[in-house]
Protein 1
Amino acid sequence: MRLRVGVATDIGRVRDHNEDASLAENGVFVVADGMGGHAAGEVASALVVETLRDLADRAERGPEDVEAVVRQANDRLLDSAEAHRDQEGMGTTLTGVVSVTVDGAERWAVVNVGDSRVYRWADGKLDQVTVDHSEVRELVDLGWITREQARYHPLRNIVTRSIGTDPGPEPDVTVREPEAGERFVICSDGLSDELRDEAIATVLGEHPDAQEAADALVAAALEAGGRDNVTVVVVDVDAAG
Ligand code: MG
């Protein structure tokens, strides 16, 4: 695969820490959105990203290695929280795409725990690839509220799975074939809470360059309110196989 990548993050207009972290290295593209008292959210997201770096250092890896590294990250968070009182209860989301090998062929493993998101943009169409692990997502699935109502619902920030829990979370890991011309947007909810899918798609259409697209998405989220930390990784697949 030939890839082009852009990364952008901002603390936003309200928060006094940036608890998001990201990694875009050697086929590993992830975003983590930390939560916890004091600076513990930052510790959680940084620890998880650090654990994912081990994956980036490997020459070859499969989808099972992605699952294994999520378990490792969960253990590291629990160990750290046990050793440091002020980190008690810290946690983080994790989502992204990782290039893996399945039966000798190059594939994407899409990984998700929590309510950060992976979108795929191709032929001018934007689709959310991950399924949010959130209370509001469950209410939408039950038909009790609409997607639009979910945006303003009091439970909108409650995640049903996160890294840093005992027992550890079951990560969603799905495998897909890379396609030339596709673009992935990996983001924290600081983007998706501020911008509807149509607005994200419009910005993507205006910026063919991956870094410019990432910068423009973060700028648009700040413009829309910037109520949370916002982090975006854009991955363009120039040529597949
Ligand atoms: Mg957030």
Protein 2
Amino acid sequence: MKKYIYADHAATTKLDSEAFEAMKPYLLDEYGNASQPYSFSRIAKKALKQARDAIAECIGAHPQEIYFTSGGTESDNWAIKGDMSIYDHKRVMITSQIEHHAILNACATVERLGYSVIYLPVDNTGIVHPTTLLQYISNQTKLVSIMFANNEIGSVQPIQQLAAIAHENEALFHTDAVQAVGHISIDVNELGVDMLSASAHKFNGPKGIGFFYIRKGTNIQPYVDGGSQEFGMRAGTENVAAIVAMATALKNNVDHIQEESKRLRKMETHLLNILTNANVDFIRNGCEDGLPGNISLSFKNIEGEMLLHRLDLMGIFISTGSACDSVKTQISHVIKAINVVENYNKGTIRISFGKDNLDHDAEIVANALISILSESN
Ligand code: PLP
């Protein structure tokens, strides 16, 4: 029997067992370099092609629009630096205040290079409104980068509308879809995005591998210079085993995306109902129709760190919306951006259920929280 409850799937997920089996041959027997012309590499080369085809199909892309990277951070850096470093008269990019640090710190770099970055505010459910983008976009905007689903509060952005506004203003549109790929149905053509970042370990694939979608014809610089791998855009010998596992994991998740999403929604509702019925004083952050299984809660007059450690002692693993230093609790940039009220903001935790959670885990986590909170009041 499982002795713990892992409820931090927004941080990382367990490797899909079929994905694990799928990667083994490319580590042990078929370890040839996929770029070599001899017959020993043929199987690795074929596996690489099949993985690219399968991944492309999962997001409605063309295989030649999929570039393998080391994960979400690299894909995000590529989008921002690879696009902004193309020299032309446009010197401004737009993003949001609630992006992951992979985006925010890449933006800080392009700011140091002399470009301007506008950080759009969000409403108190964590949504970037199309009207806000319309207010700030201009003929100087080169790139708009807005995340698909927020990692802390699960808010899902109106990507299709935001991308359309970017294009009407002749800007490119990128989305960091690291939390969404494999969990929410995605069709890049329906969405109209030019670039999209994804990371395998968020959808039951291995860590250290991901992909970057670049729409054909998009003007972007190569990210890693070297050999001619990845259509000459991202050099380095391909990690065939991890790529094959990523494709297997993604396909498995996408094949069950609707039923898994429904199951996770039920778990969310169950957990929230138990807390409400026990008269727990809390705020649910984000939107109800956000990322399935992602529940950000703020509790009154409580430190999120305390809840994390007490739950840890009970074998339940979640994360917080804050980080303690030796002096005071730091509220995360996302919790600040959605203006969680003063008495609640330090008491923020994120529970993120996923594929390996059992339905009754929601009840166990809710009851554990009730027990800790009743002792603390
Ligand atoms: N973007 C978002 C929204 C994330 O949640 C994460 C990881 O937490 C990343 C980017 C970075 O992805 P990776 O861990 O693959 O570098």
